[in-house]
Amino acid sequence: MFTRSHFPSLQEGYIYLDSASTSLTPQVVIDAMDTYYKDYRASSHRAMYASAVRATKEVEKVRVDIAHFIDAQEEEVIFTSGSTAAAQLLVATLEHNLKLQEGDEIVVTELDHHATFVPLQMLAQRKKMKLTVVPADEKFRVTEEAFAKCITPRTKIVSLIHASNVTGTIIPVERYAALAHENGAFVIIDAAQTAGHITLSFKKLGADALFFSGHKMCGPTGVGVLALKQKWIERCIPPYGGGGTVHSVDAEKTIFLPHKSKFEAGTLPIAEIIGLGKAVAYIQGISPGSIQAHSTELVAYALSCLGQKPWVSVYVGEDNVGVVSFSIAGVHPHDIAHIFAEHSIAVRAGFQCAELISRKLSSSGVVRISVYGYTTKEDIDACMRALDSVQKTFSI
């Protein structure tokens, strides 16, 4: 699995169990970004001098690498500043280009992250559309039966989270995407929790669009990817204009480029894209399948340990990306996280930016443990010792 010494922030005695929020960054990623700033700092796609040409080549190389990584076409890869920015760009694009009418429907799930849920909710309110929420069952799954009941001939947009950032549940989105397409809907997949954690194929998942963030898969913050099917790139007018998006501009009209660059307004996050490329190479050196197997083993170990603490309520999806959430009756999640911090253990507490499912599990939210390739069973053991401290502190 990951070599822990590759991650400079993993200092001795520090236990990091918050990778679903943001992963740690290996030195090779940091070095690649530093090299850009020191050796060829310039805007990409803007000039003919040597450093600018090199910056452009590096960015476009990463685009090719990302396309291979997620099994997409190079022309389908659009760089953004992260998943939330990708979702906002996508929703704005759909509002500008789909013929949305009052009474049309948007389908989301109870597991959806705020990054997609909120902008789609706002879109529904602006257009007087119906927003339908597919409920999760008692095992934190979105079942095919429940999903099918929510799809109608008036469904125009469907949002599917590939894996819940609260329960870790991996959703079989390819089946649901096919069903949604039978009714003519546009399908969005939020892959923020799965990119770099499991094997990902944009082609096989069958969605119209998919997005993820670099900072959840060993990359830097400030960079993400929106994969958009070629037919939509060709068909859609971008919602935002700016440098790099146009073929020509005069006083009467603007003609946009016919390819993915029309969605990349302004200067790209060049250093971050380069860092993301190194993160992809680092992960491929291990393989996402191996990372998933490691995470599965750690989740099973954590559940076996938590099973010995009957005062802890656990919320975990069976097919899991590497996330375990829990609560303790009478103890606020923030108090638990504070005690964990005193033990030098990083966890996330609260509603996890996915309030529908988190509040359903516990009115005050949950504490989340999330693992990755650098997590060990010893980290889980330390977490259990911290829980024992919580028990003593609150006399449970």
Q: DSSP strand (E) fraction? A: 15-25%
| Strand-pairing-aware structural class | alpha/beta
At CATH level 3, the topology of the largest domain is Aspartate Aminotransferase, domain 2
Q: How many distinct helices?
A: 13
What integer is the average pLDDT? 97
Helix content: 40-55%
In terms of per-residue confidence, which ranges show pLDDT below 50 for 5 or more consecutive residues?
Answer: none
Report the sheet with the most strands, covering strand number, pairing sense and barrel closure.
Answer: 7 strands, mixed
- SSE string, helix = H, strand = E? EHHEHEHEHEHEHEEHEEHHEEHEEHEH
Task: Estimate nothing, just give the exact number of structural domains.
Answer: 2
Assign an overall shape.
globular
Cα radius of gyration in angstroms = 22 Å
Write up what this structure looks like:
The chain is an alpha/beta fold and 396 residues long. The chain has 2 domains: 4-18 and 287-393, Aspartate Aminotransferase, domain 1 (Alpha-Beta Complex); 27-285, 3-Layer(aba) Sandwich (Aspartate Aminotransferase, domain 2). The chain contains 13 helices and 15 strands. The protein has a 7-stranded mixed β-sheet, sandwiched between helices. A 4-stranded antiparallel β-sheet has the order 11-12-15-14, with helices on both faces. The longest helix has 21 residues, at 50-70. It is globular. The chain starts with 14 loop residues before the first strand and ends with a helix. The model has no long low-confidence stretch (mean pLDDT 97).
